[in-house]
Amino acid sequence: MSVEETEETPEIEAGVTVEDEVLETLGDTVQTTEEHLNADASVVVRPDQVQDTLSALRDDMGYDHLSCVTAQEYEDRYESIYHMKQYDDPTQEVSVVVPASKDEPISQSAEPVFRTADWHEREAYDLVGINYEDHPDPRRILLPETWQGHPLGQDYDQDSPQIVTLSEWDNPLRDDHVDDEADTMFLNIGPHHPATHGVLHVKTVLDGETVADVDPDIGYLHRCEEQMCQNGTYRHQIMPYPDRWDYVSAGILNEWAYARAAEDLADIEVPEYAQVIRTMSAELCRIAAHMLALGTFALDVFGDFTATFQYAFRDREVIQNILEDLTGQRMMFNYFRLGGVAWDLPEPREEFFEKTRDFLEELPAKLEEYHDLITGNEIFQLRCVDTGILEPEVAKSYGATGPVARASGIDYDLRRDDPYGYYDELDWDVVTEDGCDNYSRLLVRLREVEESAKIIEQCIDLLEDWPEEDRTIQANVPRTLKPDDDTEIYRAVEGAKGELGIYMRSDGTDKPARFKIRSPCFSNLQTLPEMAEGEYVPDLVAALGSLDIVLGEVDR
Questions:
Q1: d(CA 435, CA 400)
Q2: At what angle do helices 349-370 and 310-327 cross, to 10 degrees?
Q3: pTM tops 0.85
Q4: CA distance linking residue 440 with residue 128, whole number of Å
C-alpha cells in the first residue's frame, strides 16, 4: 500500500474502450493511431505536443509510470515511443509515438513531466541521434562526449575512426564544480571503487561533509547489447545475451524478459509444465540476487566481511549449486528457450527435490540470523534508518520499480499485477515498506526472500505430482521465426531489481528491426541524487548500495 493517499484512477465507462478514452482526453493533439500488441491505445502526436500529451495522460487518466522511452530511425523519419503504464494497474498501457523529421530530428523533451525521461532521452540522443528541446542536460550518457556519430543510426559508419581532441578533455575537474563563495570540494568516487558495485563514476560535490551535488557517470561497460540483439535471430541467437545484463545472479529472470516479449510477438503458448519450471527457477535466481545484495550492502555500510558477507555468499552458493544441477551452468544459464525450457528437471528427480527442500527448510533460521546480524544491529540502524529518503511520488517520477519502489510504499509487482508464468496460480504476497529509506530497501529484500521460498515450495509440490505423460517442456516452435512486418510490442517481467522490459519491432525477417532493453537499474540509479544530496558521504555510499545496481544492466 502507498504511504500517501492518492487519487483513484478514473474508471472507464462500460462499452468505452481505453483508446476511446485516450482520444477524448487528448482531443486534436492526436494525429493518428497505431497498433502495438501490448498497448490498449497507441497514439501519434506532434513533436511539440509531448509535454501536454504526457501531462494529460498522467493527470486525467492516471498513467503515472513512464516505463520506457524507445528511439528508432526509419527510412523517412525518426521516432520516439513513450511507453506509459499505471502503477495501480500496469496492464493499462498507452504508447505515445512522436515522429521527428529525418532532416531535423528534434522533439520536445518529456523531462518536465517525468524526471525519468532525463536519462532515457539522453540515451536516445546518444545512440540514435534525436535531439530533445527543453532537456536540462543534453549530454551523451553511455558513450564519451568525444564520440562521433550515433551507433544505432542508419548512416553510422562503424569503421570510422573516433577523433578525440585531448586538449578539450584533459581536465575532468571543471571550474563550475567549485563555488568560490562556498567551501566546496569536488570528489571522484570510482570508476574503480568497491562501493560503486561495478565500473561507476560518481562525480560528487561536497560542502564541508555534506553532499551538495551528485552526478552518476555511466557507460563504462556499454557493449551496445541492443545492436547485438538486432543482429541475432529470434529463435536461437538472442537468448544467450540476457544473462550478461544482470550478470551476477539473475540470468534466468533476464531470459524470461526476452522470452515473454518474443513469445507474445510470435503468438507462442508455453506449456503449463514448463511455466512451473520457469517460475521455480526464476525465484531461485531472485533469492540468489537478494543474498548478494544483502552481503554487499553489509560490506558497504559497516565493513562486515567476516560474518554477513560470507554467510550471504554461503547461502547464495547453495542456490548456485541447485541452479547448476538444473541448467548446467552456475552463472550464464541460457536455460530458457522460446516456448519453454531447454530440458526437464535433472534425474533422479527425487534428489533434486530433496536438495531444494533442504535449502528451503534451513532458510527461515538463516533469515532470522540475518535479522540479528543486520536489521537488528544498532550500528546498521543508525547508518540506514532515515537516510537515503526516496518519497513515493519522487520514486514514481523517476520510474523506480522493484524493491526500491516497494520500500517507498509503492505496491507494484508485475508478477501479481501483470501476471505471467505460474504466479497467478500460487499463494504469495507482495512485500512493501513505508520507511522510504536505506533500511526499508534491505528489509523488503529480506522479506521477499521468504515469499520466493513460498513460491518455490509450491512449485516443487506441483512438479513432484505432475503426470509423466504431461511433462512437456517446449511448445512446437518453428525453426525460423518471422513475425509479421511492422509488428511492435513491449513486455516486461519482475526482475530481481524491478521492471525489466523489452521492446521489439519486426520487419518481417528473422531478426528484430529494433530491440530496446528497459533496465530497472538504469531508472533506479537515476534516483541517487534525490537520495544523497544533503546527506553525508557515508550515507551516499549506503544509498548507492541500497539500490542494488549491476552496471552491466545499467550500461547494456
A1: 16
A2: 160
A3: yes
A4: 38
Quote the CA–CA distance of 303 and 286 in Å, as a whole number.
Answer: 24
- Res 20: pLDDT: 84
**What mean pLDDT, rounded, does the chain reach?**
87
The span from the CA of 158 to the CA of 145, in Å, is 17
Task: Specify the CATH number for 18-133; select among 3.20.20.70, 3.40.50.20, 3.30.460.80, 3.30.160.20.
Answer: 3.30.460.80
- Residue-wise pLDDT tens digits, 313-347: 889 999 999 999 999 988 888 899 999 999 999 99
| pLDDT higher than threshold 80 for residue 51 | yes
Residue 433, pLDDT score:
93
For the record, the C-alpha cell of 226 comes out as: 541492443
Contact 10, 24 (CB under 8 A): no
Please report which residue ranges of 407-480 form alpha helices under DSSP H: 414-417, 438-464
Mean pLDDT of 50-55: 92
Q: Is 475 left (phi over 0), alpha (psi -120 to 50) or beta?
A: beta
Find the angle CA(69)-CA(74)-CA(79) to the nearest 5 degrees: 30
Model confidence at 257: pLDDT above 90: yes
Distance (Å, whole) CA 253 – CA 36 = 24
Give the model confidence (pLDDT) of 348-396 as tens digits: 999 999 999 999 999 999 999 888 888 888 888 888 899 989 999 999 9
The number of C-alpha atoms within 13 Å of 412 and in the hemisphere containing its C-beta is 33
Inter-CA distances, 547 with 83, 192, 197, 200, 294, Å: 23, 18, 10, 13, 11
User: β-pairing, 512-518 with 94-101?
Assistant: unpaired
* Single-letter residue type at 547: L
- Residue 262 cell numbers, joined: 518474443
Q: What fold characterizes domain 225-237+249-338+349-475+497-555?
A: Cytochrome-c3 Hydrogenase; chain B (1.10.645)
Q: Where are the domains of the chain?
A: 18-133, 225-237+249-338+349-475+497-555
Cell output for 453: 521460498
Q: pLDDT value at position 6? A: 39
The Cα–Cα gap between 472 and 13 comes to 42
- Kindly state the DSSP code that residue 429 receives in the 8-state scheme: -
**Rg, the chain, Cα only:** 23
- Nearest-10 crossing angle of helices 50-61, 18-26: 120
Burial 195-204 (b: 16+ CB within 10 A, else e): bbbbbbbbbb
Q: How confident is the model at residue 71 (pLDDT cuts 50, 70, 90)?
A: very high
Q: Is the dihedral of CA 300, 528, 7, 423 positive or negative?
A: negative
Residue 416 in grid coordinates:
501479481
